[in-house]
């Protein structure tokens, strides 16, 4: 705020520069000039001013005729401008004119623009109001633009233009180094990284190979490049496998495999011990030899040898024999008969499971085992048995369901037909046999009829009726995750299932099944 005094109620036209770097405006005028006159601020002509030396011993300026008593009037300079009068603490500038003072003002300059790691291209060497400069970051650096203490842009284009406005630059610009981030684990496989000096442009990270991988090469350093990517490694971590672990019931056949440091892809051969074979091999030709391979993660493929097993003895002997180790190799099974069998030269009723998966002999019916089974009873209402051979020991009865689209199965005692979980794969039953103990095996009371599998398996569509383990999840077209209720409802012959949802009991069974599960025409995608 500039202040101009009035003398005797009249404006005094006087402009002065005080000693202590402060400014005051004195206005003098003739008696006819009103004290309320507003003076515009414009440039003052040099011819209207004169200078007088002012010092400690200098007398005050004399007043010309017509000067009135001084009072003060005030006005403000617009923002962004400053006084044109230079600081001169030892001089007074005084002008006596019968008109308004013309005061010179000019815009304030901006501070010098300095941005590290950048080049500047300015429209002028001066930093006056409206000046523009283009800031371009050097290679490997990105722009960070800030306005009003808030980051408004980050990692933008290669350059930005800033403008001088009211004594300051309209944007705060910085050039920050590109950050590559911690190297990805796939950049150098089987390695761990150490970046002690950061991950920005020009920084270096070292890597070490994780056990059992070994370093191949001399330079284990990576450099953060200008594009934000790590340099290509000049060394690698070569995965090696240690000596393969022992396999139970197998012998290592490859001598070199007893040492460490095996390259990825190396093979080692094993052979199962007598009485053991490779799992998954056919019953007729049981494989005993297998190979294991060193994999890319430094481990060996798994291998195993399982005991050789013999087929169960004929079902007519079910429940009559006892075995030392089930049906596995070297297991002994026997049926205890009366002494009369041995006296008649029929020998002992003992068999052994041999290493080739066959029994050393066969059971015979003991002399005292006579008679026949009673007619099958306790049958489920939808199951029927046909016994063309009668009910004598060893006779078989064929099972069938009244509904030709259903199949006969055995269910555990604690599972009902209506509550079969989708993951349960019941055993199919085609016949029952009369054992030497005069009992039917399997017991007819455990046999049930369930909906069979529709012939749409393996067609790349998930048929809901086949979406269960019993149908191998539609031959692989479905999977366990596609079963929403995690329970599959199976339709029986004479008793309709309680299907999910509000379907009621009046609709026909087929309509209920279609409502609960999409039909073969309404198929869903693979699970």
TrEMBL record:
Keywords: Disulfide bond, Glycoprotein, Repeat, Sushi. CDD domains: CCP. It catalyses: Cleavage of the 135-Met-|-Lys-136 bond in insulin-like growth factor binding protein (IGFBP)-4, and the 143-Ser-|-Lys-144 bond in IGFBP-5. One of its GO terms (molecular function) is metalloendopeptidase activity. Transmembrane segments: none annotated. It comes from the Eukaryota. It comes from Leptonychotes weddellii (Weddell seal). This is Pappalysin-1. Homodimer; disulfide-linked. In pregnancy serum, predominantly found as a disulfide-linked 2:2 heterotetramer with the proform of PRG2. The gene is LOC102745379. InterPro entries: Notch_dom, PAPPA/PAPPA2, Sushi/SCR/CCP_sf, Sushi_SCR_CCP_dom. Its EC number is 3.4.24.79. GO terms for biological process: cell surface receptor signaling pathway; proteolysis.
């Amino acid at each position: 705020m500039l202040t101009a005094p009035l003398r005797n109620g009249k404006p005094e036209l006087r402009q002065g520069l005080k000693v202590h770097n402060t400014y005051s405006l004195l206005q003098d005028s003739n008696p006819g000039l009103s004290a309320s006159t507003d003076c515009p601020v414009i440039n003052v002509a040099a011819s209207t001013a004169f200078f007088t030396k002012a010092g400690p011993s200098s007398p005050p300026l004399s007043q010309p005729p017509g000067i009135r008593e001084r009072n003060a009037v005030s006005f403000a300079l617009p923002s962004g401008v400053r006084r044109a009068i230079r600081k001169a603490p030892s001089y007074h500038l005084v002008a006596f004119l019968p008109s308004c003072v013309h005061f010179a003002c000019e815009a304030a300059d901006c501070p010098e623009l300095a941005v590290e790691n950048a080049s500047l291209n300015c429209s002028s060497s001066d930093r006056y109001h409206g000046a523009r400069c283009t800031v371009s970051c050097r290679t490997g650096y990105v722009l960070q633009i800030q306005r009003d203490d808030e980051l408004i842009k980050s990692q933008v284009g290669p350059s930005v233009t800033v403008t001088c406005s009211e004594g300051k630059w309209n944007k705060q610009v910085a050039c920050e180094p590109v950050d590559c981030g911690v190297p990805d684990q796939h950049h150098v496989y089987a390695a761990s990284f150490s970046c002690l000096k950061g991950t920005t442009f020009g920084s270096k990270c070292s890597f070490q190979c994780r056990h059992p991988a070994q370093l191949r090469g001399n330079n284990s350093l990576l450099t953060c490049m200008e594009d934000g990517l790590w340099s290509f490694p000049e060394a690698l971590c070569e995965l090696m496998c240690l000596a393969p672990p022992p396999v139970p019931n197998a012998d290592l056949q490859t001598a070199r495999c007893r040492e460490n440091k095996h390259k990825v892809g190396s093979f080692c051969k094993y052979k199962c011990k007598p009485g053991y074979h490779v799992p998954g091999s056919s019953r007729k030709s049981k494989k005993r030899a297998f190979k294991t391979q060193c994999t890319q993660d430094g481990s060996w493929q798994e291998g195993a040898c399982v005991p050789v097993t013999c087929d169960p003895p004929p079902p007519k002997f079910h429940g009559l024999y006892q075995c030392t180790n089930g049906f596995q190799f070297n297991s002994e099974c026997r049926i205890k008969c009366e002494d009369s069998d041995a006296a008649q030269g029929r020998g002992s009723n003992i068999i052994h499971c041999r290493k080739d998966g066959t029994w050393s002999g066969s059971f015979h019916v003991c002399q005292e085992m006579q008679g026949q089974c009673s007619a099958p009873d306790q049958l489920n209402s939808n199951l029927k048995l046909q016994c063309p051979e009668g009910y004598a020991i060893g006779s078989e009865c064929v099972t069938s369901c009244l509904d030709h689209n259903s199949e006969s199965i055995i269910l555990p005692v604690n599972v009902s037909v209506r509550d079969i979980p989708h993951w349960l794969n019941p055993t199919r039953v085609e016949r029952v046999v009369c054992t030497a103990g005069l009992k039917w095996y399997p017991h007819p009371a455990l046999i049930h009829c369930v909906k069979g599998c529709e012939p749409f398996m393996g067609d790349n569509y998930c048929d809901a009726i086949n979406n269960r383990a019993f149908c191998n999840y539609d031959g692989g077209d479905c999977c366990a995750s596609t079963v929403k209720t995690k329970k599959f409802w199976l339709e029986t012959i004479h008793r309709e299932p309680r299907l999910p949802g509000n379907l009621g009991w009046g609709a026909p069974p087929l309509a209920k099944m279609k409502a609960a599960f999409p039909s073969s025409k309404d198929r869903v995608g693979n699970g």
